[in-house]
Amino acid sequence: MLKKIILSGVAVAISMAWIVSAEAGGIAYVDVKSSVENTKAYQNGIKHLEALKAQKLKELRALKAKIDQAEKDILGQSMAMSPERLSQKQSELKELRKSAARKQQDAQEELVGEKNRLDQKVVGDFYKVVRAYGKKKGYDLILPKSNMIYASPALDVTAEITKILDQKK
Questions:
Q1: End-to-end Cα, the chain, rounded Å
Q2: Residue 104 lies in a domain
Q3: Which secondary-structure segment (H or E) carries 60?
Q4: Mean pLDDT (the chain, rounded)
């Protein structure tokens, strides 16, 4: 227990030393989520994703309507159909349902893939910009805001990073 207290004290002392040196030469922080999500590239990517999602939903709804109509047809005509014809229609309905389930899964996988590609591109650009910004401005350390309990707002470079990301083509 004493060992943990001593180690915690050492960690706090090191953190305090970094905070003191921040004023002298170069510690900043950036809100990664805010910076990335407020870029034009990310916003455009999200709009593209939403359009793709709307398209996929429209296709899936049309397929569902087709399945619903096939079910109604089978129910309405089952008494007049021969057992072979009824079996064939039920088999077609079963295949239609399988196809719909596959299309739904494919659509979901496509959307997840597109979102992952968007995130990778924008976050990759973010890290490149932060590194270049840090070197250019002479920062020794730029931390993500999510890892801090408290930091002076004067050390926040989020808006500057977002602005640079938006200027990047």
A1: 54
A2: yes
A3: helix 40-77
A4: 85
Record the tokens describing residue 14, joined without a space: 């090191």
pLDDT at 74 over 50: yes
**Is residue 144 in a domain?**
yes
Q: Which residues pair with 143 in a beta bridge?
A: 29
Burial of 76: CB neighbours in 10 Å, binned 0-12, 13-18, 19+: exposed
**Measured torsion, CA atoms of residues 70, 66, 96, 71, in degrees rounded to the nearest 10:** -20
pLDDT at 133: 95
The residues that bridge with 28 in the sheet, in sequence order, are 142
| Domain range for 69 | 26-167
CATH of the domain at 145: 3.30.910.20
User: Is the Cα dihedral 134, 137, 138, 144 positive or negative?
Assistant: negative
**How far is the C-alpha of 74 from the C-alpha of 66, rounded, in Å?**
12
Into how many domains does the chain fold?
Answer: 1
Three-class DSSP category at 39 = coil
pLDDT at residue 87, rounded to an integer: 87
- pLDDT band for position 86 (50/70/90)? confident
Residue 92 lies in a domain: yes
**Can you give the pTM of this predicted structure?**
0.71
Establish if 12 belongs to a structural domain: no
